[in-house]
Amino acid sequence: MSIDSYQKALDFLYSLVNFESRPDPAQAALFDLRRMYLLLEMLGNPHLKSLSIHVAGTKGKGSTSAMIAGVLSSAGYKTGLYTSPHLIDVTERICVNGKDITRQDFTDIVAELEPIICQINSRAEYGELSTFEVLTAMGFLYFYRAGANFQVLETGMGGRLDATNVCDPEVAVITLIGLDHTAVLGNSLALIAAEKAGIIKSGCTVISADQPEEAARVIRDTCLEKEAKLVEVGLSTKCRHAGYKNGFQLFDVSTLKDQYSIKLPLMGAYQAGNLCCVIAALEELSEKHPAITREMIENGLKEVHWPGRFQVVCADPLVIIDGAHNPEAVKALMGALKHYLAAHEPITGRKTLVFGVSSDKDLPGMASLLGKYFQRIIVTRANHPRSMEPERIARVFTSYAGEVIITSSMNEALGEAMNNLSKGDLVLVTGSLFIAGDGLASFQNGNRF
């Protein structure tokens, strides 16, 4: 296959085994890091060329990764950031110092790797390489060639068998753990924590969020077993929300080492927990990398960009886009919304929810939290094969809301939502990162709803 265009590169990648588009509880049996090691060895082991910060968790791992990478870049280090899934374009997953890989560079790397991938997959000694595994290898290769000092790696799912877990991290961060992907990772906090704790390597430093005790115990035991240093931010870091100003959230953060006044452009009061993990991780890194100072941490966090997470796209009427995709994330989102509204103009008009969800998620749990708050619910589906049928979503929401409207696309849903909006109205777009991405794309494309 001659890969000479971005579309052909995408066609090749998506022709591989793609667990993101075809969720299957049996897929865990197919994960095998040996094929990642094989591919990377054939590429010269680029994953070992930069210092790694590895981030796992159920909630906030993307925001946490983006904040750490932003500060490292601000401190003068060339920094790669690998995240998933993307919101609009797959090139978002691989970036250096805040700039996404270009489509041309993306295409060139796929063309370079295609014969190697085909060779490995034809033998399939450890199973066939997947789309996500190849994208991860592409990230490692791109960071190495860009001369990255650091690479911040967000796990895709779990940790122990995730494709990113070939790295040898300086610092491993485990954000808040909750019940998600239970069919693959396990149906208890302890089982899920064991998968997340799989990123802990011997001798590394581990930063753990303020976890439920069931999860915290697993992380502590793993650190003891691996002889890894553990920093539990619930014990070492205090964070006070100090209000909002000019589009920033304000936080006062105290650690055992320093005090910080943080202006964060990311909204959502739940960012406080992520922020504690970020500062703890950066303080650990600063012991070997002195350019990471308090001033650099404060300056870097002011510049962080991480779209689709409590993103206010219109102030009045208030339109918010958020990628909450499980009941715990929705609970945090609703808490953040009430916190935000308490400090801003109250909602005096109509409350509209635009909602879509992936087929493997806990729809009843999410609907029970959202349904009673909104007067009008518009259900839709993202442009993604995992999306749940709007009719199925509507049947669940009808027991909560008087008006449920079924649409087949985000543009149609936003057309309904934005029609005849008035000052004091609220529109919330949520349910999955794919929904958030489609919502952002609709606004960015200049649609007039």
Mean pLDDT: 93
Structural class: alpha/beta
What is CATH's topology name of the largest domain? UDP-N-acetylmuramoyl-L-alanine:D-glutamate ligase
Main sheet specs: 8 strands, mixed
Shape: globular
CATH superfamily of the largest domain: Mur-like, catalytic domain
Provide a descriptive summary of the structure in words.
This protein is α/β, with parallel strands linked by helices. It folds into two domains: 6-302, Mur-like, catalytic domain (UDP-N-acetylmuramoyl-L-alanine:D-glutamate ligase, 3-Layer(aba) Sandwich), CATH 3.40.1190; 311-444, Protein-Tyrosine Phosphatase, Chain A. The protein is built from 16 helices and 17 strands. It has helices at 6-15, 33-42, 61-74, 103-123, 131-146, 182-185, 189-196, 213-226, 233-236, 271-286, 294-302, 327-342, 363-370, 390-397, 410-418, 433-444, and strands at 51-56, 79-82, 94-96, 99-100, 150-154, 171-174, 205-208, 229-232, 237-245, 248-255, 259-264, 311-314, 318-321, 351-355, 376-379, 403-406, 426-430. An eight-stranded mixed β-sheet has the order 4-3-2-5-1-6-7-8, with helices on both faces. It has a six-stranded mixed β-sheet with strand order 12-13-17-14-15-16. Strand 3 (94-96) and strand 4 (99-100) form a beta hairpin. The longest helix is centred in the first third of the chain and has 21 residues, at 103-123. It is globular, with a radius of gyration of 21 Å. The protein starts with 5 loop residues before the first helix and ends in a 5-residue tail after the last helix. The mean pLDDT is 93.
